[in-house]
Structure formats: structure tokens, C-alpha cells
Write a structure and sequence with these properties.
about 270 residues; 3-stranded antiparallel sheet
């Protein structure tokens, strides 16, 4: 008899549990899907001493937000290169790939508008001697500190496939009105990739979010970043995009910038 009542109680409990699961099933099915992590798979960096640069990120002299300096949103590679028979030299390479003829470059500018004297962006072709300046522009000063974008003008020669180009962002800052203007800068390299036909077809058929994954998985940094940043600017309250942004920046050790605002800026005036 005792066993019979125990079985009845077990069946009752199971029935109540099942009813509870069924009642919550619509809520479970309607919940938003988890964000797909956007992680960058870095390609091998250029050989030898190519692409040496400075991504920035050192402490500023007191002008920047939280004493930060300008930072270029681009991967870095730390390499030890042999010099002679025994000595090794550490080289920081600042470099990324693009699939675009006219890519967009992204930078964190931590300074208040009142402390910025000027911002200049330069793109150079250093494969020839003397080097040739392809693009030089004065950038509109952003109203507030944050992450800005600088698209390469379509009035310049398009980037050639497999060729490396050297870029610079220079900011003149007025930290102290009693002192001369100070210049800070970051520099790095961009290279237009020669994509295989299968990847090209996949990109043509993909949605913007699918393209981010394809770019990131194939090491196309500038395009993964730009596609995701533009989506975030169009949907600033989307929590899924915020998570994807955080994951992408973390994958290149830029997690300190994940909370910085994206600013719709900046107009460039080519010289």
C-alpha cells in the first residue's frame, strides 16, 4: 500500500513539472538567440621587418580620458627578429588586411574637443623611392571623446591587391595653454587581400552579420571591424551587437575600448 501511494505521488509531481515546462515553452522559444561570438583569426604577419608601427595606447600627458592616448583599432604582432648571429630585436607590427579598394580606418580619440588643435590622416605608398603620399586629409574634430572612422577617399588611387600601404594619424593637442602644442600619432599598415573565389561568392550571398564572421574567420580585419561598427551605429541599443563588438575587440587585445562610444564622425578634407 505504501509503495502504491509513493508511485501516485511521483506521478503527480512529474505531471505538475511537465505542465510547468509546457506553460513556459512559448517563452523559451521566443527568447532571443545567444550572440554568436565574433573572434578574429589573425593571418600570418608580413615577413622580416615589414609593417613595424605603433598602435598607441600609452598613458597620455593628462589630456585624454582616464589619461589615455590615441589608439588605432588594428591588430598588433610582437615578433623577435634576429640581428646578426646572436642578437634578437623585438619588433611590433601594426597591420591588417582589407578586401576594399577604399577601406575605412578606426581610431579611439580620448581628447576633449577644446584640447585638440588639429587631426590629420596620411596614407603613403612606400614601395617606391622616394615614397609617395597618396592621401592627406585634415579630419573634423569630434565633439566628444570616442571611436571615430576615417574612410579612404574615392578620389585617391584604389588600393592594389597584395600591396602594403603605410598610414598615420597625427593629433596636435593643447594640454596646457601655457605650453607649446604637442603632437601624438599612431601608425600602421593596410594590405588589400587577394581573396579566393569561394570566399568572394560566400560574401556576396551573406547578410551583414554573416559577412562579419566570414571576414573575421579569414583574417580580413578592416572589413570585419567596419561592417560590425556600422551595424552598431545603425542599432546602438542592440545587445547582441554589443556582445559581438566586445568579442571582436577582445580577440585583438583591445578590450579597454569595448565601452567607448562610436561617434558618427568625421568629415575629411583632402589637401
Amino acid at each position: 500500500m505504501k509503495s502504491y501511494w509513493q508511485k501516485n505521488q511521483l506521478i503527480t509531481v512529474l505531471g505538475i513539472t511537465l505542465l510547468g515546462i509546457i506553460s513556459y515553452l512559448p517563452m523559451i522559444l521566443s527568447a532571443p538567440a545567444a550572440a554568436i561570438p565574433k573572434k578574429f583569426s589573425p593571418p600570418p604577419p608580413p615577413p622580416h621587418r615589414g609593417a613595424a608601427g605603433d598602435r598607441g595606447g600609452a598613458a597620455s600627458r593628462g589630456c585624454g580620458v582616464s589619461n589615455q592616448s590615441i589608439i588605432a583599432l588594428v591588430p598588433i604582432y610582437e615578433e623577435k627578429l634576429k640581428q646578426g648571429q646572436t642578437e634578437a630585436v623585438s619588433v611590433t607590427k601594426v597591420w591588417g588586411l582589407t578586401n576594399q579598394e577604399y577601406p575605412t580606418f578606426w581610431f579611439f580619440v580620448p581628447y576633449k574637443k577644446s584640447t585638440i588643435d588639429s587631426i590629420e590622416f596620411v596614407l603613403k605608398d612606400e614601395s617606391i623611392k622616394p615614397s609617395q603620399t597618396l592621401y592627406r586629409t585634415v579630419v573634423t574634430i569630434p565633439e566628444v571623446p570616442g571611436i571615430i572612422s576615417i574612410p579612404l577617399s574615392a578620389n585617391t588611387p584604389p588600393l592594389q591587391v597584395d600591396k602594403m600601404y603605410h598610414w598615420f594619424l597625427k593629433i596636435k593637442v593643447i594640454c596646457n595653454p601655457q605650453q607649446p602644442v604637442e603632437q601624438e600619432y599612431v601608425e600602421g599598415w593596410v594590405q588589400r587581400a587577394n581573396l579566393n573565389p569561394k570566399l568572394v561568392d560566400s560574401l556576396k550571398q551573406a547578410t551583414p552579420q554573416q559577412r562579419i564572421n566570414l571576414y573575421a574567420q579569414n583574417g580580413i580585419w578592416y572589413d570585419a571591424l567596419t561592417t560590425l561598427a556600422e551595424l552598431r551605429l545603425s542599432k546602438p541599443e542592440d545587445p547582441t551587437l554589443a556582445v559581438e563588438w566586445m568579442n571582436l575587440l577582445k580577440s585583438v587585445d583591445l578590450e579597454s575600448l569595448t565601452k567607448q562610444p562610436l561617434i558618427k564622425c568625421c568629415q575629411a578634407n583632402a589637401k
